[in-house]
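Follow-up to my post from last week.
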Amino acid sequence: MTAHNEAKKEDIAKIVLMAGDPLRAKKFAKKYLQKVKLVNSIRGMLAFTGYINEKRVTVMGHGMGMESIGIYAYELYKFYDVDIIIRFGSCGSYLKDLNLFDLVIAEEAYTESNYGLGFKNYNEDTIKASSELVEKFTKAAKDLNLNDKVKIGKIHSSMWFYTEGYSKSIKDYSDQKIIAVEMESYALYLIAKILNKKALTILTVSDNLVTKKETTAMERQEGFIDMFNLLKKFIINLS
Ligand code: HPA
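User reply:
Got it. Predicted complex:
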């Protein structure tokens, strides 16, 4: 048990699926997990452990931003002996032709943050996900015939959701071959690297920052179904 997680060590599976919103984690757990048990509720950061096809998994929230996911991911890897964390979330697209509800497999994450200072002074602005997990998710997408909806690429882990007078434009990022923006993966990938563990983020496009198209809260409820099915297929393929 830690200051942020009341689960017993044996109540957390070796694979943890994490969503920013704990209620999205709950929704996934209730829909896809068998023999599901609530194992954490400190600060409302719900965590559930259960089974998908005999494979034991934990599904947990991680909050918003690198600082928040950093706390939970570090504790899961370090104190709960978790091997794999998959973050599933939403992103804003930097590409005109990435449609709402398309899926992104984030093989690399870029940030302008100095978050890496806290982890062996890591000072590269880009970090890779586990290539093994990228391959496994690519295979799961193929199995589900989702290839046309899936893009593999580099994402931006931004420090800001809101900015005023920010000097960089969306084009500056897309010129750097960055396809979408979220706020957590750089920290997750860095912590996984430092602790010799595996991590990957998969995302659903919830807004297109070029065309300004946005999904409504209602649409998002159903629109994440492809991502949920992809997670499920990934787990089934492991078992
Ligand atoms: N910025 C940062 N994170 C996000 C966004 C965004 O526009 N959309 C979804 N997650």
